[in-house]
Design brief:
With 133 residues, the chain is of the alpha+beta class. It has 3 helices and 6 strands. A 3-stranded antiparallel sheet has the order 1-2-3, with no helix packed on it. A 3-stranded mixed sheet has the order 4-5-6, covered by helices on one side. The longest helix is centred in the middle third of the chain and has 23 residues, at 43-65. It is globular and about 50 Å long.
């Protein structure tokens, strides 16, 4: 499989910028309460966004290719921090959507979970749970 490379570059004394495929940029910083200037999300927050974004991308593709009657999909990703140094010990994805067929969305969530690179990477390190409302 091919490697994936992104770049992170310093932009000032407190913040950096992540660059993906040259034209996708995001600021990375700490909140003021942690010594940053609050110019962007923290790395841990981006890890949670990465999980939710990867999962959502796979779920939307599964919905689209099957022409499923599922819309307004939202995922709330919550990470549980513990220890010193702090690390995530658990992550939960709570999925809400408009749908009529519970069995269908459960099947598509399972397909998405198997396809999500981030979820597959994290499964051995954190307790990962997925719930459908």
């Amino acid at each position: 499989m091919p490697a994936v490379t992104v770049h992170v570059q310093q932009v000032d004394t407190k913040a950096s910028q992540g660059v993906v495929r040259e034209n996708h940029k995001m600021m990375i910083d700490r909140p003021e309460s942690k010594g940053g200037s609050d110019a962007g999300a923290m790395g841990g927050e981006l890890l949670l966004v990465s999980l939710g974004g990867c999962f959502m991308s796979n779920l939307l593709e599964a919905i689209r290719t099957r022409e499923a009657a599922i819309s307004n999909v939202n995922i709330a990703v919550t990470g549980t921090l513990e220890g010193a140094p702090a690390h995530f010990t658990a992550m939960e994805m709570a999925i809400t959507a408009d749908y009529e067929d519970r069995a269908q969305i459960e099947k598509l969530v399972t397909i998405s979970e198997r396809s999500c690179i981030v979820a597959n990477t994290l499964k051995g390190s954190v307790d990962l749970s997925i719930n459908i409302a």
